[in-house]
Amino acid sequence: MKSFSDELKTGLVWLPALGMGYYPVPKNRPYDEGYFARYQKMADTPMGRELTQARIRLVARHYDGPLVDVGIGAGQFVGTRPNTRGYDVNPAGVAWLNQRGLWADLYADRYPALSMWDSLEHIDRPDVAVAKAEKWVFVSVPIFADGDAILTSRHFRKDEHIWYWTHNGLLRWFDGQGFDCIEHNTMETKLGREGIGSYAFRRRT
C-alpha cells in the first residue's frame, strides 16, 4: 500500500481551494501514428464533424483572424477553418502539418489567437503555452465537480491528462494568466461528450 508521501509524488493531487488538480503523467506518452489514426476515425463520424463545426462557430462569434491550433488531434479543425495553422508534439501530427505547410512552432513566437481543443490538460506547462496568445484562447476541456469526481471519470487518463479543473477553477486559473472568460458553453456535452466545457478567453489589455 502506498504511503502518503508516495501518493503525493505519484498520485492525483487535488487542491479544493483552487479547484485544480495535478497528476504526474509519465514522460513516455502514447502520442504516435496509432494515436493519430484513432483520432482520424473519431473525426470522420457525424459527431466528429459536428464538433468541428461547433468549435469553428465558437471562434467565429469572437474572432476571425489567424489562429494556431495547439494539439491538432487528426487535423480536422486546422483543415476546415481558413487561416489556421497547427502545433503538435505527436510526430504523426507534425508530419501531417508539415506536408500541408501548416506547421507553427508554438514556443518560437506569439500569436493573435490559440485554440486548445482537448489539449490544455495534456500540456506540462500550460501557463507557458497560453502566454503565447496575444488576444484569444479558445478551449474545450473536461470539467469536474470536485476531486472525487475525477477518480471515477472516463477523463481520468493516467497516461495523458496532467491537469484537472472545476469550472470556477479554470476561470480562476485563466484569470491568473491575464484572461477574462467571454463565453462558456456546454455544446460538446450536448453533442454527446460527457463533462466537457467550452470557453472563449480574451486577454485583458
The CATH superfamily appears as Vaccinia Virus protein VP39
- Major beta-sheet overview: 6 strands, mixed
CATH fold descriptor: Rossmann fold
What oligomeric assembly is this protein in? Answer: single chain
- Widest beta sheet: strand line-up: 4-3-5-6-9-8
Separation of the first and last Cα atoms = 50 Å
**Radius of gyration in whole Å, from Cα?**
17 Å
List the helices and strands and how they pair.
Elements: H1 4-10, E1 13-15, E2 20-22, H2 33-43, H3 46-60, E3 67-70, H4 76-80, E4 84-87, H5 91-99, E5 111-117, H6 126-130, E6 133-142, H7 147-151, E7 163-165, H8 167-176, E8 179-185, H9 187-190, E9 196-203
Parallel strand pairs: 3-4, 3-5, 5-6
Antiparallel strand pairs: 1-2, 2-7, 6-9, 8-9
